[in-house]
Amino acid sequence: MRTPFTGCGTALVTPFTSSGAVDEAAVRRLARRQVEAGVHFLVPCGTTGESPTLLAAERIRVVEIVAEEARGRVPVLAGAGGYDTREVVEAARAMQAAGASGLPSVTPYYNKPTPDGLVRHYQAIAEATPLPIVVYNVPGRTGCNVDPATLVRLAAIPNVVGVKEASGNMTQICEVLRAVPPSFLVLSGDDALTLPAMAVGARGVISVASNELPAEMAQLVEAAEANDFAFARERHSRLLPLMLANFAESNPIPVKAVMALMGLLEPHYRLPMVPPRPETRDKLARVLASVAPQAAVHAS
Predict the structure, then answer these.
(1) Beta strands 160-165; 7-11: pairing state
(2) Which residue from 50, 106, 102 is spatially nearest to 78, judged by alpha carbons?
(3) CB 132 within 8 A of CB 92
(4) pLDDT over 80 (residue 297)
(5) Confidence at residue 163, expressed as pLDDT on a 0 to 100 scale
(6) CA-based, 20 to 30 A from 268: which of 127, 156, 165, 172?
(7) Cβ contacts of 184 within 8 Å, gap of 6 or more
(8) Mind listing the pLDDT tens digit for each residue in 88-147?
(9) Residue tagged active-site, from 109, 110, 112, 164
């Protein structure tokens, strides 16, 4: 049996209607597509889901829908993070009530807590819910890096079970893997680093690209898990242009544009996210046509 929150998890986008409302029918359809494609867990209401611009009630509703579609077949790791510990505690409780299996919780952003502050922050969340918690380390967005020594302290909190490592620093990822207990899950937070991270012991990825090509990303991860690195390298090489193009502008601008080209959603965003520049959209269409020509149904 697969350990929960290992393999390929999809950082789900949040589709909107032209009026700006959450497109609940599309949320349901996209979650079902992920499960049917073989993705190992779902991650709604994270950065890729534009969580900072979702109201609390909208985040709860998105997680309820995703949990309904998952129907226990795959875990749901529902985003609960922020810079105010009290608000994060309330969000964690709300995600638990909405049907989440676990919580990825981004480090507090903007206020740059010290290591002691980080430990107390995650202790407070862990005391508020029995759900497993995955620390989300993305210093490029938060201005706060969880160094290996601090992560060792966090790993000692019983229900802090892993880290989504999106520092982009392979040396740090190696140091983390060497420092934390073997049972502590280290997940890549960057699609392009999934294969090298797994080669040194990471247990999977929380992926942006699996929004577009879920089966292909799941197969890459499964091959790495099986030590079939020949297949994994081939799949990584084929998908790399899309992995990189997804960050041609701020995430999730490109991935939602690609999904619109695939006919999966309407390309609507909430400010301050805006549609991609025309030249970026053209580039995304070319990359999609080269990586997955059968999927580029609306790319012309």
Answers:
(1) unpaired
(2) 102
(3) no
(4) no
(5) 98
(6) 165
(7) 155, 161, 162, 163
(8) 999 999 999 999 999 999 999 999 999 999 999 999 999 999 999 999 999 999 999 999
(9) 164
Average of per-residue pLDDT across 277-289: 97
Q: Two tokens at 255? A: 């991935």
Residue the block writes with tokens 């499964």? 222
Query: Whole-prediction pTM value?
Result: 0.97
Question: How does DSSP assign 46-72, residue by residue?
Answer: STTTTGGGS-HHHHHHHHHHHHHHHTT
- Report yes or no: 42 and 68 within 8 Å, Cβ to Cβ: no
Tokens (6 digits) for 251: 């995430």
The amino acid at residue 208 is V
Show the tokens assigned to 9. 């998890």
Q: Which residues contact 227 (CB under 8 A, 6 or more apart)?
A: none
**Rounded distance, CA 282 to CA 274, Å?**
16
Let me know if 109 is a catalytic residue.
no
Residue 164 designated active-site: yes
